[in-house]
Input
Amino acid sequence: MIDTSILSAVTFVYFLSFLFYFMYMMRRKEAWGRTANMTALVGLVAHTLALALRWIESYRLGIGHVPLSNFYESLIFFAWAVVFLYLIIEWLTENRIPGVFTMPVAYIFMIYASFSPDVSNRIQPLIPALQSNWLIGHVVACFMGYAAFAIAFAISIMYMLKEMIGKGKEGQSFLGFLPAICILDELIYQSVVLGFTMLSLGIITGSVWAHNAWGSYWNWDPKETWSLITWLIYAALLHIRLIHSKWWGRRTAVLAIIGFLSALFTYLGVNYLPGLHSYLKL
Amino acid sequence: MVPLKQEVVSVLKLVAAYTCVKQNKVCSCLASLRILIGLLIFTALAAALGTFAPPIHVYDSVWFASLLGFLALNIIACSLKRFPASWKRFMAQASPDRSDIFKCVPPDHMLFSTGNIASQSAVIEDLLLKRYRQVRKKEMGGNTFVCAEKWAFCYLGVYVVHLGVLVIIAGIMLGSLFGFSASVDIVEGEIVDTIRLDGDRGMKSLDFAIRLDRFYLDFYDNGMPKTYRSDLTFQKNGRVIYQGPLLVNHPICIEDILFYQASYGMAGDREALISIRKRKQEIFRNIRVGDSFELPGGRESVEIIRIEEDFMRMGPAVKVHARSANEEAQFWVFQYRENIETDNPGLLQMAPQFNSSLFKPYVFELKGLVDRHYSGLQVTHDPGLPVVAGGAILMMVGFMITFCFSHRRIWIRIDKAEGETRMSFAGMSSRHPRGLEREIRSILDDYEKRDDIRI
Output
């Protein structure tokens, strides 16, 4: 299938983009930054094309549906959303450094989707519970949320590196190349705001769908419960800002890391618990 | 009596004073953001516990409900405490003359013009009025200050979000108090009018009856399920009130009660189709174990003893007991009679219990087994549903107000510098400083199109 071979190439392109971002961080030459950005953009365009081809292919197979319906497709879309959102955030904030930490996230998910023997890349038809118009809205909102949280996570790692190891050693190591603490804090907050809004939208659309499919908008299914847990963690993060400026910074970064782990568990770990959301079973 | 009355009053005063102090403490404790964060994280932990320990009923326990209740109280208290300040900020109007914010205007936020102060301030006012509804102007010490602002309502968005959360909680409570959820299994061809309430809460009878006309099951070529469909007929007082298919993701709503396609299975009692021939006359009949019926004419009757899917490796078979006034016979009727005869010549003639023509003059024939499905329906009634939906909409609207808009204020000072008229641009934003920066840039760009301007 052509789409999977394009996606393998995209995986490589994302790795290349990461290397360029890394060079940019070390050398601080704008040329490296622009190359990294262009590489990521080329990868994203090819990625989008592959998703579109897969969509068309599913119609050719007579089971036409959006490519968001099994584990492979969700991993691919997650990587797409991370790169897409990252490029938007880079454009909005005019700061390229987080690319060093975000591109690997997309790359790892692409690698996992392409090379894990547990993940089937076949296009499969939709079982009755998934035959709903809410599929696109629900999945896109959730994965945009996850992607924004992944970016907040990447920036939080930068923050922790800068704060924990880099104290008083500015300029001595690569930590000097990282943006200032207060900029990182602001970037984490803005990414979380976006992710939180998207996750809320994802939970609401999911509830409407659950109401239509299962007869109740909330069933305490493990995935629902874990999405609520993730939501509560990020809600706590957003309120930390109101308390005291001393409370910002490290607590925000720690919660953003915990929150992303919770989001990952919502996405992946929950498959190992019994429940209604078993469409992603390996 | 007077002293007693005084005593009562003084006791009441004491109690009032005491509770007032207490209340204040309770209030300030409830309105604490630290408590809120603690509650949020504690609720998250409790919910997580519930996913790992299914035997412990966390979510319908009293303590989990009280945790949510406490969270709701905390949200109310925090909102009440903070609302007046936000309202003040929403209502406040920026005063045009603020010299403090012009202390460090970057050079690229300044324009110079040959025109005089009055004409330039008029131009600026025009430019601002394109973007802002309200523009204020003030003259002070020979300088002119112009200021404009928009989107101050963003301070109120967060209260819309919290109101949404509270409305959702109220809707959930409404649903759990006055709603119900139940299930019912209906076998094809049968009618039910009672449903089984979830959580062993007994049976509930409906005002109408439901008949499952047919259950359809369809698969893709690779064996994955494609469609589950129940054709249902709803009847009330013998009249059909609704008839149609019930599909997954497409519930049917009858009298505020929703029906969902939830599961299916094989009905325990199997059905078979037999034909009974008497010379030229043949009748067909769907039968089940235990059925007994009269044959045409009313002199003979038949009872169905057993229905087997594979009797003694000879395929589907039905055991029939037929009787008339002076005769009685029990025998098996096979579906694949010809095959059995070619495989075991003479077997059916040797054993009278295998002879389907034993009860003369009738000849029995088994046409086939009919597999009857049952369809499992989920039945719910939730009066809190529109409330929850309204709360969710409020919450999303609140997010939009809070996160997409920021209170933008722009000040422009027009004064004389180096013989020219100087315009300095400054601004403040409650959020998204870059958005404000872009806005100032675009105002500057508009301005720079004029030919009497030097940057």
